[in-house]
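Extended Data, record Xanthine dehydrogenase molybdopterin binding subunit
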Amino acid sequence: MSTLADRPENPVVGLPAAHESAALHVTGAAMYTDDLVGQMAGVLTAWPVQSTNAHAKVRIDVSGAYDVPGVVRVLTADDVPGLNDAGIRNDEPLFPSEAMFYGHALVWVLGETQEAARLGAERVQVEYEPLPSIVTVQDALDAGSFQGTPRTVLRGDAAVGLAASAHVFEGVTEFGGQEHFYLETHASLAIRDSEGQYFIQCSTQHPSETQELVAHVLGIHSNEVTVQCLRMGGGFGGKEMQPHGFAAIAALGAKLTGRPVRLRLNRTQDITMTGKRHPFHIAWKVGFSREGLLQALDAVLTCDGGWSIDLSEPVLGRALCHLDNSYWIPNVRAYGQIAKTNKQSNTAYRGFGGPQGVFLIEDILGRVAPLLGIDPIDLRHRNFYKPGQTTPYGQVVKDAERLETIWGQLSGEADVAARRAEIAEFNAGSPHVKRALSMTPIKFGISFNFAAFNQAGALVHVYKDGSILINHGGTEMGQGLHTKMLQVAATALGVELHQVRLAPTRTDKVPNTSATAASSGADLNGGAVKNACEQIRDRMAKVAGRLLGVDERDVRFGGGFVTALGAPVKRVSFAEVAQAAYLQRVQLFAAGYYRTEGLHWNPEIMQGSPFKYFAYGAAATEVEVDEFTGAYRVRRVDIVHDVGDSLSPMLDIGQIEGAYVQGVGWLTLEELRWDESDGPNRGRLQTQSASTYKLPSFSEMPEEFHVRLFENAREEGAVYGSKAVGEPPFMLAFSAREALRDAVAAFGPAGHSVELGSPATPEAVFWAVRAAQEAAVAAGAGTVDGRTLVATAGD
């Protein structure tokens, strides 16, 4: 029995708890990075000069900026004392001599006010010497423009498996990226103190990496830079890698001027300068047995990395490790490569390549089910992993039986069979509006693919009055991590939630932290917080034993009091024990540490066990599609999802709901478009605001939304038996896309395979409906525009 997973009696974890900053959020009192500017004087504002060419050598004259009143300094490459780079491969110059995408920041203007900085930037003169540009993935494929290291996942022999398959299909699956569109844009505030040290407030998911990169740019050591993340107004992966350069610009400005410098992107700057979810182009061939069982998959995955490598390699790696989703495929060959294009450098996004891998197999199953003559729900179910089977990269699928259990529970609770019969009856009498209900599963691996990131630290203080302060390496972006850590600490120390307070994340309290990403924030930091609390509790137990006159092994902590086993009436308060411990010179603070055990991964051959465990779930989504417009409604969603023994069920349900809706946004609404012409605006992002980039809103929320946490789901070896929640439920949204496919199919003949554009916008759905209707005409009879059409010989 793992002590990490064990819970004491009456734990604080597992109870519904409001987000620790909920009151501050809803009253507007919560402070974010840029809000702190109002608390200090003399702050300068940084403003970028952005490229208006997708790819060009540049010559820059900044002299005109100094003619603008209020302009203090223009930052250029000549000002950098250390390394002029913000990337992990030294491929992202902060001040480039070659513009690599439309919107690329070339130099930065510092002004007394935002307006002065903006007007100064307008006076900077840039001469462009245009170079050939690559805008689309297809452009990159045609030009052989790639970056990074390609990877291959192999199991069995895909060629032999395909040759032996009763049914073989091939095709191309393409899908777009996704803008993070966090409410708070990128923001940093840098201060240089009288000792020459730098304190940086930053909206970052990875403070330690921000610290490290700032030090590199300034040519100093990490111990001279402190980074604090108070909280973020959303991150979704977009603030894992890309805040570092902005923080470095602010720090450089503070160094050169001796004044605080803020850098906060406006919405258009943020969208045009920062990376997105990686779009993919995937060519595939798949084989099935006569019974509809997957036999072989051969695929070439090309992801659009943008102009630099950023996190594209691990994103591609996770995509390759998730293209099986929940299905056993005995023979697999999957080759992955990264395209280099003249667009923003694409980066982490919730799911981190997992959704792109899952997209492939779910698209394949949705497309071929009608051709096999098998119901798509049944086709998915019959291909589920069975206990003892392994993934294509060699990891045993632990708890595979949960897939079957969750699927059965969801099917029954959502009354899927009866509702599908009702839908069939409705569709038979409804020529212009069709409905469909689809189910999809998810199996998602939890841990960083890079083993070193699977560690965390924490610092816990108990004060003489019994109050507790915790600090850990994770960052809060609205997901509730801090709330969970408060619950973990309260449980481990046996106190009530109100006795524990949490300090902002900062690098001088907990060093060398990992990014809050990969859904691992609660696992890693929870393990570290629990470890620190248990060190303190064990010391306090000795003191309490003397106070109670019992052996320290019989001391129990709970509810803010300390009692003795077998004599619960006799008790002292936690505060009394803390005071006594201080007087007895017992240490009341501790540094906690946690590392994930049991991981093994060889990225060279893409084999091993990179994940601590798998999170499972399933969703059933019912939609309604209008023939004339392609518009759709999500009528009802039912979800059963596995979060182990939840640390905070109310937060977890909220995360599942939010992830599902964000996934629906990616799959059906959010369309990024660039100017692909050869004109002067080639490479310009055309969807630069919420007016042109469609985000999910209340109108896209399901009319009925039922979410339940999978029960009796304790995860051994994880903090208090819990599992991650951030990313896995994002992929439950595939049930919505597949429901749209099935609804479109209802306009066509039996056996018609629907190819649905991505995102499946109303426009894409409309054209898919038209294709289905034309297939019906070709098959014998159908309706288009309300007219009954009958095909004749020779049509």
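Summary. The CA atoms of residues 17 and 131 lie 56 Å apart.
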